[in-house]
TrEMBL record:
Belongs to the glycosyl hydrolase 35 family. Residues 11-111 form the Glycoside hydrolase 35 catalytic domain. GO terms for molecular function: hydrolase activity, hydrolyzing O-glycosyl compounds. This is Uncharacterized protein. Residues 470-564 form the GLMA-like second domain. Pfam families: GLMA_2nd (PF22369), Glyco_hydro_35 (PF01301). It comes from the Bacteria. GO terms for biological process: carbohydrate metabolic process. InterPro entries: GH, GLMA-like_second, Gly_Hdrlase_35_cat, Glycoside_Hdrlase_35.
Amino acid sequence: MSHTAIKDGVFHLDGKKTFFLSADYPYYRDSVDNWADRIEQLKSAHIRVVSFYVPWRHHAVNGGIDFEGATLPNRNVKRFIEICAEKEMYVLLKPGPFIHAETDYGGLPDFVNPDNDSGIDPMLNGEGAKRTWHHTLPAPTDPKFSSLVKIWFEQVNEQLIRPNTYPRGPIVSLQILNEGVYSDAQHPVTEYDYSVTSIDAFRNFLVEKYKTIDNYNELHRTTARSFAEINPPSELKEIQHEAGVLIYLDWAEYQSYYMEKLYSGWGEYIDSDLPYILNLNPPHDRAQGYDDWFNRLEIEKFTNQYYGYTNWIGVVSHDESAFNRYLLLTKRGRGPNLEENWGFSKLYDYRYKYTAIPFFQTIMAVAGGASGYNVYTGVSTDQWDDGIDSMQEKPYPDCSPITEKGELTPKYYAMKLLNRFFEEFGSDLMESRAYSPLTWGIYNRYAQVGCWGMEDDLTKMGRKPIHLGRNGFDRFQTVSRKSNIDYKLLNLASGVPSIDEHPLIVLTGGFFMEAAVQQYLAEYVRMGGKLLLTHDVPVLDENMLPCTLLIDRLFAGAHPKDDTYKVEKGIVVYRDHNLFGEESDPTSVLELLLGMDKDLSSLKSDAQVWVHRHPWKNAAYYFILGLDEQEKTYRVSDGKYEILIDLPKKSSAIVRVEDGKLSAGVVKGIHEFEESYVAPAIRMGHETLEASSPCDLFFAIHGNTTAYETASDREGEVQVIYEA
């Protein structure tokens, strides 16, 4: 029996669903003398998991590995893990090999630098230039580098992981690599990897996909004598016919293949049954950013690696682009946010100095489906040597909840309130499900087209441009969220969609789609599903060969017109133009969706709101994000309850309702950056709960008893009164 597992994106400890409540502590930047005290302070703030990188660069010394502090006291990571166990804290261990974490060379040792060892292949971009992170980066496909990684991981496993795996020790989960390979999961399709060994791997991928060079030539209309003659495209060139699209799709598809093989292959170097959690970074804010991200991170293909993500995206409460891209992160799959920025204002954005910013983002992540979050970092430090970091200003980071001197900041006390809520109600929340009546259909080959930006070439061929990310998902999300309609994401290649899980699917179609996916969609509609298909309908398969299965089964063999089609138990609404294009009208799109399902907009609010309902308790969690520029009383109504809540400018709250009564909540009443201070007040029916003065508030009502805790930087005791 496995004592730790991840099921449906939720962490299970000894079979129990658990909210993954963690904080990062870079032990290698601090004095050994501080470790026990800082971990105790994290525990007092209701943190249950300590996460930390194990930097290869820090521990590789004189041709050996020092995990015991023989050469430098804070290399004694064995003792650090022991302290975690003594404090009854769990551990998420992150051995890289590349970690970023603002360390020199991303935590890699200098001996893997291809400039120092000509036997290691450098990673190259599409222009043939070496990719660098302070120094030249090694190609992950290089056999020598990979063998060195294997030795490193085997040492980590033998000395750290295996002896300390739960329940023998505190380690409950692992994370390898970092935000892709080199913090680059969201980079353009031409950014990597054009190294010699990666191109060899690409050719092997083509062999796996096409089997013989004759098959390849027939589909691509080429005359290559062997796969060794085929080179990946590094830029978009003029495409004359549909078959000319295939080489671009091949290279784009290889990106996700490459990523999955790297994670699964290197993961096998660690012989452990612990769950591995990904920490994927968000899409770039560029024209093809969504498509680059969708393409490379086809997470359904990852084996033994579970979805998780990081935040480094901007201030989501004040930046609409950051808000939209962060929401995509939370919706792409269920899993924990492994790096929420609670400590960095100088390196990223000065506004992160203010507690309301990460507080808001944490609530937004959980609203979107996060099954945990990580305070990154929980502790500031100033006790590292130049060998691990010769560039950063001390302390690192500059504004964590716990300072480098061990002082507890206002950020600490606000974090503690939030954590108290998740500690008390996290397992119950993990049982609950968001009401998400809409589904956006992801067909990943459309992202493979979109990331190349080949709209003009397709138009010249008489084909409509393909839209999955830009002028597709991006505008769909805007339409749905403006009406407080939550949505799911579904990879359409996963099989016939469940009607119960996905009652209404929205898809921007394209001129091609593999036969199996056409079959899945047709079967979904015939069984009773509702499909809004916009822009185009496929007439070719993924090899650009004729395939009209969807047209035949849903539209009786004729290209559809703008109309509603009844197909056995289901319906299809088709629109020949792109409903999510630049000239689209959000109001008319919403009206069309409501015509397909009038119950879509049952949630009404002037805030951004998500509702998670418990499947058998009469309980619900209301996640409320106030984006107004003024202090305001927000109204939330879902046809069952009406909640009024007073919030500062751009602030956030969670309210739990059970059996028709207020049950618990956490409210950010102080917004330091906006200089907005509100005494939290919540009204529902005959119930009122309010604080006597501005503060951050946690409350839980148990029968006739109201427990509460507040945090405020103002003098005087805060009273909280509950009346029913």
